[in-house]
Specification:
mainly alpha; 3 strands; disordered C terminus; DNA-binding; differentiation; HLH_DNA-bd_sf; neurogenesis
Amino acid sequence: MLTVPFEDPDMMRESQFGATFTRQEDARTLNSAELKEAEDDNTDREEEEEEEREEDENDHPKKKGARKKKFSEGRGERVKVRRQEANARERSRMHGLNDALESLRKVVPCYSKTQKLSKIETLRLAKNYIWALSETLSAGKRPDLLAFVQTLCKGLSQPTTNLVAGCLQLNSRNFLTDHNGDVSFSGRPQYDSLYPYPNAAEMATPTGLSSGTRDSVKPFRPYNYYASYESYYDSASPESSSPRFEGQMSPPINYNGIFSLKKHDDQVEYSKNCHYGMRYCNVPGRGSMYRVSPDSHFPYDLHPRSQSFQSQDELNTGFHN
DNA sequence: TAGGCCATCTGGTCCT
DNA sequence: AGGACCAGATGGCCTA
């Protein structure tokens, strides 16, 4: 969101107390500091001992002020260098942490380069995402999208909820969170109950283009339903604050293991971030059970995974180990 | 201007 | 002893 890219050299130079380091400068500082420190150690120890001797002999030693000043400068310098080293390490550590967080941003739903989720929201969304996927695995069937999104948005701030809504092109009012952080459905019928998903046998149809009119082709249904859902409800909420996305999401929604949603005009970014391999990322014409008709206005591809789910026990074993 | 978010500094604690 | 980790403090930037 407001995060400045870590590669930004100007940002890297900015620090308090005049400490101006880039990463390279940090390394240089560390090397010179190590050499300097060895010298300073001996010098400081001698000065310290000498000073103690003088104090023992005379409670009011001559030139103590001057010596003390010299000692303080040497030691102060050394402490300063040590502190700078520690600061550099700490910066580096935090950069690593932020890099990891950025990686996490890319694999949770609603990744956007231009509108970054905050750190806390990224973690919350990731937690919800894992939870929602686990729930789906437990159920052993395709999830109700709205319920999925409700779980996804649980405890998220309104702006983030809007972001998720925007990613799905849904009206965020349908899954607002209450003051307890619980997501509540605002009274509209769930499209799933109106338009049930195809059953497992239907989902297993290789391409979904086998026969019949468009309405009779089950695998097309989700697209039509999503689109009708959106058009039906969007018109009823002109005040909706859900942001519109213009191709910056990648992958906007990546329901790994269930289905993936992506913007049509984001192929490059999508494939770049789709690092789970063929198993998770459908390639046109290869194992994709759902295909978008050319005239479909639904903004995303829907890519259900063909693999049957692993047993929950298997997955849990992986998690708990 | 207040509040949120962030990067950085800092000192303390823990671990190797 | 030195590095990693952590949490508090601080100041900058941005937005409502």
